[in-house]
Amino acid sequence: MRTMHVLISGAGIAGPALAWWLARNGIAQVTIIEKAQSILPHGHNVDIGGSARTVIKKMGLRDKVLELNTTEKGTQFIDPKGRPYAAFPVQQGSAASLTSEWEIMRGDLAKLLSEEAKKCPGVEFLFGTTISSVLSNDSTSVKVLLSNGETRSYDLLVAADGQWSKVRKQCFPPEAVTVVDKDMYVGYWTIPRLPSDNEWWNIYHGLGSKMISTRPDPHGTIRAMMSQMPLSPAQKRAWQEASKADRQSQQDLLRKEFGAAGWQADRLLEEMDAAPDFYFQAVQQIKMAKWSEGRVVCLGDTAYAPTPLTGMGTSLALLGAYVLAGELGKLPPNGESQHPAVALDAYEKVFRPFVEEVQVIPSWIPGIAHPETAWKRWVFGVVMGVISWLASWRWLVSRFGKDDDAEDFVLPVYLEPEVGAGEK
């Protein structure tokens, strides 16, 4: 009887997590292809919350994830002179801060998951490789032409190559994908650390719907971010065009818009050219009418990017991988032409309601975090100051606050691998 063969496109978070579950449970032999030559250390802070923490514990990776903590002590809002006016220190197990003890750099998590997947029997990584063409997707197999010239056939192709997935574009019609624009544009990059830098996520609001932040990492550098919500049709066109343009055009626009923004804007802009990981994006959600087509299925941001505004992208990737692997593991081993459609439909039926819940973003977000005028910035500061004061009352937080460790998605029970004592 033949083992299922699965091809995963993308070695970010969702892909290696799925490979681990499939291989450790003996469900499939897995090939992961990744366009980069290695796992890149790029990406900013991500948070693992709710039921996704349970998934990490089931994988025996809790201690390793916590050891890779970003070192961030909490979140604080900064005035134009760099003085904090509202601080939210980390409180273990509580969502009273925008920072948690489960904060980890995206690159560190991707590396950890890939290393763990590589330890599993039957997992193959092909770096510097992409899918040039999906040649067929029928009742017997899905056949692909790889960028290295090879033609390969698999039982299942998993598109986990991000919200602008090229695999999804090949296999799903345009009308199957809805892009929801949140009217916000962001630039991210890494800068050298100075002795004066602290261990907090520092957030500053410039006038004209601008936000600047700096965050520490465990690698001796600082992660910088600039974001803006356009205030006019002309300004929005400029940002839209930049999001599709080259790096130089994107950096030119950031310099134009943030050159007089205040606080540490000059420092961040000066270091931008040398940054190895500069990334610019329009903040947008991905919603799909159906996550699978034949033997092709979408996972993580490819299927349901929720935007950084939710703080749930990484958690959805981990949960989706767990559910998809679990449903594939329930398929009966009935021979060569076993079709995964039943499992793919079950994955969507089980997980879609939670995804749709997560993707609901209140209408006042992200506008509240991008005040246009000095008056609105002052009001925002007063409100955050009051909330910060209330959050300092631990008994109040414990009684009325959200428990960040509480499960937010009821995990189905699937066959689970054995992990060593103390790993859970």
From TrEMBL:
Domain of life of the source: Eukaryota
Keywords, comma-separated and alphabetical: FAD, Flavoprotein, Oxidoreductase
Cross-referenced SUPFAM superfamilies: FAD/NAD(P)-binding domain
Residue intervals of the FAD-binding domain: 4-358
InterPro entries: FAD-bd, FAD/NAD-bd_sf, FAD_aromatic-hydroxylase
Ribosomal protein keyword on record: no
Gene Ontology molecular functions: FAD binding; oxidoreductase activity
The protein, known as: FAD-binding domain-containing protein
